[in-house]
Amino acid sequence: QEQLVDSGGGLVQAGGSLRLSCAASGRTFSNYAMGWFRQAPGKEREFVAAIYWSGGSTYYADSVKGRFTISRVNAKNTIYLQMNSLKPEDTAVYYCAAASTVFAVTRGSVQVWGQGTLVTVSS
Question: Residue 108, Cβ neighbours under 10 Å: how many?
Fold first, then answer.
């Protein structure tokens, strides 16, 4: 069974850093685009970042450009989200996602979701 397992969330002070991980299992995600979304309390889930699994091209929401970096290690079937200069408004549950194309990821047309990992940024 295909599965994405998110990890790495936690509590951090504003200005700090965290690295989220997403481990894929159950299928080969080498032909899939991968991404991260987040959902803050009382808000809709929003796109954060996306990456072609094999191509390496990356895409970011304007709110995180220059602070977050998405990357992947194909040998580990894992993607990462390095988050620097964190702000209180980055507080949310972060979800890993897999889709057929980067366009589909950015539009939320996701085929597989991770279970989510909570990131809390204190001021």
Answer: 14
Nearest in space to 9 (alpha carbons), one of 105, 123, 120? 120
Task: Give the C-alpha separation, 37 to 28, whole Å.
Answer: 21
Helix (H, G, I), strand (E, B) or coil at 76: helix
> 105, 34 in Cβ contact below 8 A?
yes
Q: Cβ(100)–Cβ(108) under 8 Å?
A: no
- Pair 83, 68: CB distance under 8 Å: yes
Nearest Cα residue to 79 out of 123, 10, 19, 16: 19
Contact 11, 122 (CB under 8 A): yes
Which pLDDT tens digits describe the chain residue by residue (123 residues)? Answer: 789 999 999 999 999 999 999 998 877 677 789 999 999 999 999 999 999 877 578 999 999 999 999 998 878 889 999 999 999 999 999 999 999 889 999 999 999 999 999 999 999
